[in-house]
Specification:
- The structure holds two protein chains of two kinds.
- Chain A is mainly α.
- Chain A has one domain (about 1-80, about 90-205).
- Chain A contains seven helices and no strands.
- The longest helix of chain A has 29 residues, at about 50-75.
- Chain A is globular.
- By secondary structure, chain B is mainly alpha-helical.
- Chain B has a domain at about 260-475.
- Chain B has helices at about 1-20, 20-45, 60-85, 95-110, 115-130, 140-170, 180-185, 195-210, 220-225, 230-255, 260-280, 290-310, 310-340, 355, 360-370, 380-390, 395-420, 435-455, 460-470, and strands spanning about 50, 55.
- In chain B, strand 1 (about 50) and strand 2 form a beta hairpin.
- In chain B, helix 11 (about 260-280) packs parallel to helix 17 (about 395-420).
- The longest helix of chain B is centred in the first third of the chain and has 34 residues, at about 140-170.
- Chain B is globular, with a radius of gyration of 21 Å.
- The chains are: A mainly alpha, B mainly alpha.
Chain lengths: ~210, ~475
């Protein structure tokens, strides 16, 4: 069950990297967050901790943050397509390469016995790398936020393995930090588009030596 | 009382949201800052305040707490004068954000759980982003965006580092996997090495981004340059110390696991790189606030080198943490005054500051002398101690390299600072004058670092020794 979820997460990584439409990208990242909300349940069974963690992840990663981003692009009326420094096919190929790399690499890691079979560690690494790819290759500031969210999703997968180590209060705080962080990013995005009439980070280059 | 210390500024932030009175909101800052400082002093005298397993103060966090609290109080007094000048910009957002920033910093300092520490440090990033954006122009948007994105991603990596350390405990088959710091320390020897090392590297990269160690410092000149002077002071003196504390926690863990040498070497390498990068960019720097930002990168490098060498140099680094925070406070506040007066921070317009603004200009020049390690100021003492530690540990080449870089920094910074302060008075187009509220804090900071250079009070010495011994403990 958990492995099926993780496979879907990897497919969503590719979909997001290859999609040219902004709204579709946001929806894909939202779906990814919602799938991840099921992960604690699939791994630890329906304990109280897992239920609350899943509910928190669903609420924040699957609903609030995507709604915030969708509202932002509605308000700033930006062009709805994703612009990239390199083409979509090369990004997809890169995404495939880093995913394959993550799978090979995690074979060499000294994992705990019970994690050798699962897809947790390679998926976490692959999702983080794909998030990095989004961060680096896309031109709009809002796609950088999406990249950051994918990165956080990857970290979340790893965190589910260790949810015994992190008390629920702290987990709630971490999710809240993420939400408020994206909220503040949304406000800054608004200001960027008001000031520069575009959301392209290429305009943000006045400060340099 | 510790809980009260952490939470009461939140009440202040809530009050400021509903207070319809401009002056009242401004005065909330020194009110909360003063109470914070007072409570901190009380707490330092009580033995080991602890609040459950997650929150508590040890010698390291006490040192950072008192420095941060003192710096915050000074900046809060300055803020009243500053916000009076900026009535056009308002203080409805900046006051609550400054207070939440204080809450987040205090929480990060007193956290005994790595997860809580992470949460608090991320909260400092979020609450300081609106502070950097205060001026609301294109440049400050750009600076805010870079700061927010780089630090968030960096902190994300720190989170991964934390998880790796938890995984190290899981793989090692420890009874309970916990990120509570004391239980991690006590079980450090059995942690799985590869995961612990990977975790340390990620923690160093993540919190190093926040601290501004090269090569992860690229947001720093932009953010410090575009933020108001007092925000620059709080970030360069307070937040960097908090991030350094987080890195020291990782070093503590590595030392307890018996791998302290590896951690120290990593810190030493990043420290030397930071000093070198800062020295290169400080030569011919035409912008006084960016100059200060690079100086901050340099001093973070010195801190990392001090801890990286160990022994006497660690003691020097602890002392330097105090000196750096207060000197940066003094310099950024004075630079803020100069920027207000000239309506510019570029050397093309700023010159003759001493003749034009006798107090702020002189404080800036004295602060420059202090920060570059000239006697009789405090940084001279701490840098000298670190250098003595380096030479007595037999690493002569590193010592000579540090001396050379300090020389380059002195010359590079001197060229800019002297051009800005010396020369004929200029006619100002703004009606800015040095007022009591705007100069009292930088002058006080300057006097304190002058005192620290001449005489180290016994309580401070023992506090520094206690903090140092925490970093030196072998298993």
């Amino acid at each position: 069950m958990a492995n099926l979820l993780l496979l879907l997460v990897i497919l969503l990584n590719f979909y997001t990297l290859g999609s040219a439409r902004l709204v579709a990208c946001i929806r894909a990242v939202a779906l990814q967050g919602a799938l991840l909300a099921l992960l604690p349940l699939a791994t630890h069974g329906p304990t109280g901790h897992a239920l609350l963690l899943g509910a928190g992840a669903l609420l924040f990663k699957g609903i609030f943050i995507p709604l915030l981003l969708l509202r932002t692009i509605r308000e700033v009326r930006i062009r709805r397509d994703v612009e990239s420094f390199i083409g979509f096919v090369p990004t997809l190929v890169l995404g495939l390469l880093v995913t394959a790399g993550a799978f090979i690499f995690s074979d060499f890691l000294p994992l705990a016995h019970e994690h050798h079979e699962g897809l947790f560690v390679p998926t976490a690494l692959a999702t983080m790398f794909c998030g990095f790819l989004m961060l680096i290759t896309r031109r709009k500031a809002i796609t950088q936020v999406l990249g950051y969210l994918m990165l956080e999703n990857g970290i979340f997968i790893f965190a589910v393995l260790l949810s015994a180590a992190i008390p629920l209060m702290v987990e709630a705080g971490i999710l809240l930090d993420l939400l408020v962080g994206v909220f503040v990013m949304g406000i800054v995005l608004n200001q960027i588009s008001r000031e520069f009439t575009s959301l392209e980070t290429e305009r943000l280059t006045a400060l340099k030596e | 009382m510790l809980l009260f210390l952490i939470l009461f500024p939140l009440a202040g932030a809530g009050t400021s949201l509903f207070l319809p009175w401009y002056q009242g909101r401004s005065w909330l800052l020194p009110l909360c800052g003063g109470l914070h400082l007072f409570l901190t002093c009380l707490l330092l005298n009580s033995p080991a305040p602890q609040l459950g397993p997650w929150i508590g103060l040890d010698a390291l966090s006490r040192l950072v707490l008192i420095v941060t609290s003192l710096l915050y109080f000074g900046c809060a007094i300055y803020a009243v004068g500053y916000l009076n000048l900026r009535r056009d910009r308002g203080n409805k957002i900046i006051v609550p954000c400054l207070l939440i920033f204080l809450v987040a910093m205090t929480l990060a300092i007193s956290a005994r759980h790595l997860g809580l520490l992470w949460m608090a440090v991320e909260a400092t990033t979020i609450s300081s982003a609106p502070l950097i954006y205060y001026n609301r122009n294109r440049l400050s948007i750009e600076a805010t965006w870079k700061y927010l994105l780089l630090c968030s991603v960096g902190i994300g990596l720190a989170m991964l580092g934390m998880l790796f350390i938890a995984y190290a405990a899981l793989v090692s088959g420890a009874m309970s996997v916990s990120l509570q710091f004391d239980s991690l320390l006590s079980g450090a020897t059995i942690l799985s090495r590869p995961w612990l090392h990977a975790g340390f590297v990620f923690l160093l990269v993540g919190f190093g981004t926040k601290m501004g160690l090269a090569p992860l410092h690229s947001w720093k000149p932009d953010a410090y340059g575009e933020a108001p002077g007092m925000v620059g002071a709080l970030l360069a003196g307070g937040l960097t110390s908090v991030a350094f504390l987080a890195i020291l926690r990782a070093v503590q863990l590595m030392t307890a696991a018996g791998d302290g040498d590896m951690a120290r070497q990593a810190l030493l390498g990043m420290g030397l790189l930071s000093m070198a990068v800062a020295a290169i960019f400080m030569v011919r720097q035409p912008d006084i606030k960016r100059l200060l930002a690079y100086s901050s990168v340099e001093h973070m490098g010195i801190l990392a080198i001090g801890v990286g060498i160990g022994g006497l140099a660690t003691f020097g680094a602890m002392l330097h943490l105090v000196n750096n925070a207060l000197t940066k406070g003094c310099l950024f506040l004075a630079a803020g005054n100069i920027q207000r007066a000239y309506d510019s921070k570029k050397l093309s317009r700023v010159h003759g500051a001493i003749a034009t603004l006798p107090i702020s200009g002189s404080v800036f020049l004295a602060g420059f002398l202090a920060v570059t390690g000239s006697p009789p100021f405090g940084p001279f003492m701490s840098e000298f101690t670190i250098l003595r530690g380096i030479f007595s540990s037999g690493q002569v080449w590193i010592g000579l390299l540090v001396l050379f870089l300090l020389g380059v920094v002195f010359i590079g910074m001197g060229a800019t600072a002297l051009t800005a302060t010396q020369g004929e008075p200029v006619h100002l187009e703004t009606d800015f004058k040095d007022s009591f509220l705007l100069v009292i804090s930088p002058i006080t900071f300057l006097l304190i670092i002058l005192m620290l250079g001449v005489y180290l009070p016994e309580p401070l010495q023992s506090a520094l020794r206690d903090a140092t011994s925490l970093l030196e403990v072998q298993p």
